[in-house]
Specification:
The complex is a heterodimer of chains A (about 120) and B (about 110). With about 120 residues, chain A is mainly β. Chain A is built from no helices and eleven strands. The chains are: A mainly beta (about 120), B mainly beta (about 110). At the A-B interface, strand 5, strand 9 and strand 10 of A face strand 4, strand 5 and strand 9 of B.
Chain lengths: ~120, ~110
């Protein structure tokens, strides 16, 4: 199970940190994603982090502003979001990546947390 | 990144209809293609992985085909609970696992 928290209403230019608490599986074994969905729009991957935290990749739209991290001792994934703009308004999901049938899939998703950037 | 393009972006259909959604990759991805279903206010749910393998618990009316650059998701007989948005996702060149733009299936 994955449970996100930390969303809310924030002013443009401010910061917010999202958390994703994992349970029911060995968190430290898996790469993890943040995926977002703006109102009325499709799914957009935001960032991914390797199982050990050593490798991180960001979408161009958030590079330099967002930081993904994890604390395997706390079974928690984070997304630090800085310099927020209206384009960052979205529901943010965390998701687990696993191999299945020779391909990688996102098999477990959180319920999502809503971030609204507004003055 | 590999770009994924879905068509149509939306469609209207009736219960019992056969529905086919197309996904095209910007380069060959073999069968590294997954399909997800998302209902309003809910997280996406995996339907099909590796282009044609049905996820456990998914009804048999859902099927996937394709390889290379062209893929389809077919619902053989649309049910009321199938009205949702469907996304394809490539897993050939990862990370990232990027998505197509989605196809919204609406009631006619």
């Amino acid at each position: 199970q994955l449970v996100e928290s930390g969303g809310g209403v924030v002013q443009p230019g401010k910061s917010l940190r999202l958390s994703c608490a994992a349970s029911g599986f060995t968190f430290s074994d898996y790469s993890m994603y943040w995926v977002r969905q703006a109102p009325g729009k499709g799914l957009e991957w935001v960032a991914v982090i390797s199982y050990d935290g050593d490798n991180k990749i960001y979408a161009d739209s958030v590079k330099g502003r967002f930081t993904i991290s994890r604390d395997n001792s706390k079974n928690t994934l984070y997304l630090q979001m800085n310099a927020l703009g209206g384009e960052d308004t979205a529901v943010y999901y965390c998701a687990r990546e696993i191999p299945r049938g020779g391909v990688d899939i996102l098999d477990v998703w959180g319920q999502g947390t809503t971030v609204t950037v507004s003055s | 990144d590999i770009q994924m393009t879905q068509s149509p972006s939306s469609l209207s259909a009736s219960v019992g209809d056969r529905v086919t959604i197309t996904c095209r990759a910007s380069q060959s991805i073999s069968t590294y293609l997954n399909w997800y279903q998302q209902k309003p206010g809910k997280a996406p749910k995996l339907l099909i992985y590796a282009a044609s393998r049905v996820q456990s618990g998914v009804p048999s009316r859902f099927s996937g085909r394709g390889s290379g650059t062209d893929f389809t998701l077919t619902i053989s007989s649309l049910q009321p609970e199938d009205f949702a948005t469907y996304y394809c996702q490539q897993s050939y060149s990862t990370p990232p696992l990027n998505f197509g733009g989605g196809t919204k299936v609406q009631i006619k």
